[in-house]
Design a protein that fits this description.
5-stranded mixed β-sheet; disordered C terminus
């Protein structure tokens, strides 16, 4: 199986690199996506590659209703009649984050570059690999005489935009998909390649744009500063309402939830087994992590809310900055939330706290943004050990080959998005 995967991956790599070269930005980042056609190009490229794979009982279709980003739907019949009533649904996405420039020398978002066993470029690991990983895994199972249940692969094109089109697609496609016995989401991280990892939770997200205005024009700073309050000063005061600047604690009550005891225990096991999460990044010398130890880092990343400013309008580039009073700002906020937090309640509290009693009577408005709920599996207590074992026989019909493919390609950087249940493969 490993030899088959190595050969199939080498053959697929040029197509993955061709996919990386397509600027298939998610609809949120490309409002003219229907005109540019980049998402359609990506979908067609993946369809052509998928259709050419040596998989028995497979149908491949791109579904593109008017006004909706495309979906690649692949259905594969079970290899045995007794498995035909079981369905495994595999999920991925083909849309991409924006460029986020600058990149390192010699690299770029739409420039696929292979260095050793790592492929650089936008969308390779998030999440273009998913269709390649899934179908090569399935082909390897069939080629080596293995068996699998009925398989459905759904690759959407609006995930980076909070999956704004997915629900409408699912309304139409659920009768075809049927009831899934197992859902495999190929869009996450893992800490190592020698174990089978399953996510037990994912964080939610709540966002919005904070708009501040204090003056109708943009006067010279030599006249207005000290007379009118700067929009940047008001921004600092407003952000202090929702985040403790010393600790990073999010101060919104609805964003904080009790952490279940067994989740703390799971995090402790993972923290003892692997290096701290902070070691998977490249902080500049002297930067200290926000948590004092590996356990704290895991809990911060999975169960505690965190605020990030992800965009700002109204501030010029340093090279273009003149002595002009900053009359207005627009700041895009993103709050990562615990799995069980109510994203809509957080959004309402965020808006109420920021818009209440504006400093200096300035115009302050919050425009609602992303509302992505978190997810928590149903396993707890005694079920946490029993339930995964009950699912394991079905999972093993597919997952070892996928894991082996990921081992072989080594495209994803280490670092878990959620604490996982560990199943050693050896």
């Amino acid at each position: 199986m490993s030899d088959y995967i190595d050969q199939a991956w080498a053959a697929a790599l040029p197509t993955l690199m061709e996919y990386i070269a397509i600027p298939a930005r998610s609809p949120m980042f490309d409002p003219d996506w229907q005109t540019t056609g980049h998402l359609a190009r990506a979908a067609e490229l993946l369809r052509e590659w998928a259709q050419a794979q040596p998989i028995a009982g497979m149908s491949v279709e791109v579904i593109s209703p008017s006004g909706l980003s495309p979906v690649l739907l692949i259905e594969i019949a079970s290899t045995r009649p007794e498995l035909s009533d079981r369905t495994v649904l595999l999920y991925g996405h083909m849309d991409k984050q924006p460029e986020m420039e600058p990149w390192s020398a010699g690299l770029g978002p739409w420039l696929p570059v292979l260095r050793g066993d790592r492929l650089y470029g936008r969308g390779g690991a998030d999440d273009g690999y998913s269709v390649f990983a899934a179908l090569i895994a399935i082909a390897s199972i069939q080629a080596t005489g293995g068996a699998h249940a009925r398989l459905v692969l759904l690759i959407e094109a609006s995930e980076e935009s909070s999956s704004v089109h997915l629900s409408q697609h699912l309304e139409k496609l659920l009768p075809r998909i049927g009831a899934a016995d197992l859902v495999v989401t190929l869009d996450s991280f893992c800490e190592s390649y020698d174990r089978l990892w399953t996510s037990t939770s994912t964080r939610g997200v709540c966002g919005g744009v904070l708009e501040i205005e204090v003056c109708a024009d943009d006067p010279h700073s030599g006249r207005a500063s000290g007379v009118l309050p700067s929009s940047f000063r008001i921004l600092r005061e407003l952000l202090a309402r929702i985040e403790d600047v010393r600790t990073g604690e999010v101060l919104l009550a609805s964003a904080n939830v009790p952490i279940p005891g067994h989740r703390v225990q799971e995090a402790a096991v993972a923290a003892a087994a692997f290096p701290p999460l902070s070691s998977s990044f490249r902080p500049v010398p002297g930067v200290q992590p926000m948590a004092p130890d590996a356990l704290g880092e895991l809990l911060n990343e999975t169960w505690r809310p965190a605020l990030e400013v992800i965009g700002i309008d109204g501030i010029p580039h340093v090279a273009d900055a003149g002595n002009v009073f900053r009359s207005r700002l627009a700041v895009k906020l993103s709050i990562r939330l615990p799995p069980t937090a109510d994203t809509h309640a957080v959004g309402e509290e965020l808006k109420a706290v920021l818009e209440a009693d504006p400093p200096f009577g300035a115009s302050v408005r919050v425009v609602d943004g992303a509302r992505g709920p978190g997810w928590l599996d149903a396993l707890s207590g005694a079920r946490a050990t029993a339930a995964p074992r009950a699912l394991l026989p079905l999972a093993l019909l597919l997952l070892p080959a996928t894991v082996a493919l990921i081992q072989a390609s080594a495209l994803a950087a280490a670092g878990p998005e959620a604490v996982g249940t560990l199943w050693p493969l050896d």
